[in-house]
C-alpha cells in the first residue's frame, strides 16, 4: 500500500530491556507502510543504543540528558531536517503503546491528512493527569494531552519550531497547534502494563510537578485566548 512517509520518534533512557521488542513489533505490524524508527538515546547508561541499532532503528545519541521533551524535540528536529518525512509519530520506549494503536494512528494520517492525532488512554495513570485531562477537555476539547502516542504533521511542527519551552509534560506543542487552528483527530489507544517502574515516577513529588505544569499550561492557554489590544 502507498502511505505517507513517517518518522516514528521514540525517546529512550535506559530501555535496553524493551526497546528491541518495541521496534520489532512495529516492523511486524507496519509491513507495507513507509516509516523510519528514530530512537533518541537520552544518555542511557545501559545498552539502549546498541539494542536499538541492532533492531534497525536510526539512533540519535544526545550528549547530555535532555529529559523526555528534550529527546522528542531532538527527534522531531532531525525528522524535519531530513526533509523526507510528512509526519512524526511519537511513542514510548517501554512497550506500553500497542503497535496496533500505532498502526491506527498511521491510518488516520494516511486517510485524513489531519495535522494532529492525539491518543487517549483508557485510564489516567495519576491524579494529576486526570486534572490535566479535565482542564484540557474544557479548554481545548482534548481529553488526554499527556498520552505519549501522538502524530504531528511536519508542516504543522515547523510553524511552531520546537516541542516545548517550559515544563508542560509534553503538551505545549499540542496547545500551540490547537490555538493556531490545526485540525486534529482523537484516538482511543491500547495500553499495556509496564514490567518495571515507570520512568516518570509516582508519589507526591510527581503529582506536584503535574499540578505546577498544569497551572503553567492553563495560564499559557488563557493568555493566548485573550484578544489583542488595538493600538491607537
Description:
The protein has 232 residues and is an alpha/beta fold. It has one domain (6-225): Spore Coat Polysaccharide Biosynthesis Protein SpsA, Chain A, CATH 3.90.550.10. 43% of the residues lie in helices and 16% in strands. The chain has eight helices and seven strands, in the order βαβαβαβαβαβααβα. It has a seven-stranded mixed β-sheet, with helices on both faces. Helix 2 links the parallel strand 2 and strand 3 (58-61). Helix 1 (19-29) packs across helix 4 (99-112). It is globular, with a radius of gyration of 17 Å. It starts with 5 loop residues before the first strand and ends in a 7-residue tail after the last helix. Mean pLDDT is 92; it is low at 226-232.
Question: What does the secondary structure layout of this molecule look like, with pairings?
Answer:
Blueprint lengths: L5 E7 L6 H11 L5 E7 L6 H7 L3 E4 L5 H16 L4 E4 L8 H14 L3 E5 L6 H14 L9 E4 H7 L11 H8 L4 E5 L15 H22 L7
Parallel strand pairs: 1-2, 1-4, 2-3, 5-7
Antiparallel strand pairs: 4-6, 5-6
Helix pairs in contact: 1-4, 5-8, 7-8
Report the CATH topology name: Spore Coat Polysaccharide Biosynthesis Protein SpsA, Chain A
User: So what's the CATH class?
Assistant: Alpha Beta
Q: Tell how many strands the DSSP assignment holds.
A: 7
Q: Tell me about the biggest sheet?
A: 7 strands, mixed
Q: What is the name of the CATH superfamily?
A: Spore Coat Polysaccharide Biosynthesis Protein SpsA, Chain A
What is the first-to-last residue Cα distance? Answer: 57 Å
Based on secondary structure, the structural category is alpha/beta
Query: Major sheet: order of its strands?
Result: 3-2-1-4-6-5-7
Number of helical regions: 8
Mean pLDDT: 92
* Low-confidence segments: 226-232
Number of domains: 1
What portion of the residues fall into strands of 2 or more residues?
15-25%
Any guess at the CATH architecture? Alpha-Beta Complex
Order of helices and strands: EHEHEHEHEHEHHEH
**How much helix is in the residues?**
40-55%
What is the overall silhouette? globular
Gyration radius, rounded? 17 Å
Amino acid at each position: 500500500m502507498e502511505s505517507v512517509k513517517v518518522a516514528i520518534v521514540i525517546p529512550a533512557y535506559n530501555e535496553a530491556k524493551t526497546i528491541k521488542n518495541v521496534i520489532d513489533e512495529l516492523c511486524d505490524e507496519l509491513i507495507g507502510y513507509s516509516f523510519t524508527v528514530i530512537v533518541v538515546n537520552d544518555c542511557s547508561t545501559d545498552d539502549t543504543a546498541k539494542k536499538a541499532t541492532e533492531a534497525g532503528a536510526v539512533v540519535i545519541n544526545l550528549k547530555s540528558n535532555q529529559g523526555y521533551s528534550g529527546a522528542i524535540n531532538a527527534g522531531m528536529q532531525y525528522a524535519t531536517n531530513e526533509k523526507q518525512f510528512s509526519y512524526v509519530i511519537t511513542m514510548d520506549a517501554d512497550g506500553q503503546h500497542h503497535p496496533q494503536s500505532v498502526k491506527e494512528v498511521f491510518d488516520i494520517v494516511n486517510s485524513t491528512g489531519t495535522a494532529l492525532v492525539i491518543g487517549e488512554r483508557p485510564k489516567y495513570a495519576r491524579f494529576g493527569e486526570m486534572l490535566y485531562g479535565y482542564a484540557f477537555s474544557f479548554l481545548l476539547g482534548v481529553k488526554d494531552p499527556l498520552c505519549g502516542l501522538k502524530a504531528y504533521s511536519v508542516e504543522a511542527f515547523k510553524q511552531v519550531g520546537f516541542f516545548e519551552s517550559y515544563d508542560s509534560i509534553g503538551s505545549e506543542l499540542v496547545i500551540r497547534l490547537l490555538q493556531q487552528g490545526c485540525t486534529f483527530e482523537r484516538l482511543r489507544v491500547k495500553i499495556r502494563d509496564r514490567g518495571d517502574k515507570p520512568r516518570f515516577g509516582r508519589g507526591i513529588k510527581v503529582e506536584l510537578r503535574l499540578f505546577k505544569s498544569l497551572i503553567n499550561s492553563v495560564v499559557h492557554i488563557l493568555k493566548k485566548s485573550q484578544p489583542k489590544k488595538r493600538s491607537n
